[in-house]
Design goal:
Number of strands: 12
Radius of gyration: 20 Å
Structural class: alpha/beta
Helix content: 25-40%
Strand order of the largest sheet: 2-1-3-12-11-4-5-10-8-9
CATH superfamily of the largest domain: Isopropylmalate Dehydrogenase
Bound molecules: nicotinamide-adenine-dinucleotide, 3-isopropylmalic acid, manganese (II) ion
Largest sheet: 10 strands, mixed
Order of helices and strands: EHEHHEHEHEEEHEHEHEHEEHHH
Shape: globular
Length: 363
Amino acid sequence: MDFKIAVMPGDGIGPEVVAQGVAVLQAVGKASGHAFELSYHDVGGISIDRHGTALRDEDLDAVAEADAILFGSVGGPKWDDPTAPTRPEDGLLALRKRLGLFANLRPVKVFPALVDASVLKPSVLHGVDVLVVRELTGGIYYGRPRGRKQTKRGWSAVDTMRYSEAEIRRVLQVGFESARERRKHLCSVDKANVLETSRLWRRIATEMAEEYPDVTLEHMLVDTCAMQLVQRPTRFDVIVAENTFGDILTDEAAVLSASMGLLPSASLAGVPVAGATTMGMYEPIHGSAPDIAGKGIANPIATVLSVALMLRYSLGLSEEGAMIEAAVETVLQEGHRTPDLATENDTALGTEDMGARILDALS
Ligand code: NAD
Ligand code: IPM
Ligand code: MN
């Protein structure tokens, strides 16, 4: 089959890690006889510098035509002026919204080879396998009114957390369906003791649970969840949460797997049921990592694993996706480490060398 893949490397370490993701994609294409036609598009700070906007309409239109998008990361100190009219992150947020990518799947696994690389105790980490389903196109990221204004008593700013029933229902459906295909436990995270949006969320989750008698639904307050996630992470199977909660909980979850450089994500425009494919954008959960950008030491594994998710969720190539995951596991078992994972006894590899090891393991 021929597939159209839009590639948006972005800023900072984005282009460095995306290059390794693309190399892995091309190797899979060669081995499996599928053709991946790549097109490259600016997004984020680089797009602001070149075109004056974080995402041009023509790039949005072009990537919307693709079967899937591989995205690196956006942002950096160069564009961090709080008074700037536009920010790199606006490009990412526009992509998610305009492409209707409402469900962000963030699998969190602890590789057996890395239980000692985390700052947490190995006894807590053995067997961790959680899927976080983060709502991605609603909530406080997009709610109106929003803005800043000067008043007689000084500056004032507002953001609005808003959710419709339909928005809540579709992401919860992804949560329930995912749990059904896994260990049949869904933890719905909210702040229903305080927020109206959360009370609506909880009510809908409870209603929907009747359609999924095979799935055990649990409600958990987000602050408790943040604690449980590091105290007893193996208790979780699927976690479903609104946009901001899911964002924060997954950076925390990266500590379980040992590094931000390991966690991939899939942002989907539909509910992935029983192997059906849907348009999606694939990106590591980490950012542009300005502190290490340009040094060639970023861990490309999160991006490589995002390519595996792309093969599974958008291209219907689950076996090829599993091959990539197995190759990553092999490389880690062989002891190869980028600096974010290395202990004093390891010789750390750079981004390209890690990519090359993964390609070796694939072949
Ligand atoms: P970050 O995720 O970029 O970095 C956090 C820490 O993790 C840093 O110490 C960094 O070196 C490390 N890290 C991240 N990815 C790594 C990798 N692949 N290998 C090794 N180490 C890695 O978060 P930040 O520093 O808070 O944000 C930097 C910029 O990135 C900000 O402008 C932010 O808005 C943006 N951001 C973008 C995205 C995205 O594009 N999806 C996601 C998060 C943050
Ligand atoms: C992420 C990032 C983004 C988010 C930022 C860069 C807008 O943190 O993808 O997790 O908050 O969604
Ligand atoms: Mn984030």
